[in-house]
Amino acid sequence: MITASDIKKLRDQSGISLGECKKALEEAGGDEAKALEILKVKGTLTAQKKSGRALGAGTIAAYVHTTKAIAAMVMLACETDFVARNDEFISLAYNLAMHVSVTNPADTDALLNEPFIKDENKTVRQLIEEAVQKFGERIEVSRFVQFIVEK
Asked: Contact, 53 vs 43, CB < 8 A?
């Protein structure tokens, strides 16, 4: 039997809605690891379905390392200003800026395929797909840049 605490635990881990977490747990027969995999697959499918939608809003985030010698900026686009003003969306943009400051990817494709620095078990692409599933909107890294003080 799937309990409310099981659903809440999965939601805390995934950030996905309670309803989707319940469906995933039911489909997985109560197995938490299988439910997480189901949510991951659904996130990819959701992102693919939304890929044709227009991006009309977003946010820019900057990260400056404590040494003040390295920094990065990321423009993260979404469909509506409602999502663009969401604290979790803004935090995602900031975390992506932190990631770019460390890895300095050559282009967006390289960025999306890198393991995320805060959780190397998922790629940046998977992180964004999870956000698409959570917010219900298309999300895309529009631009990014890294700055380094040369010595």
From this structure: no
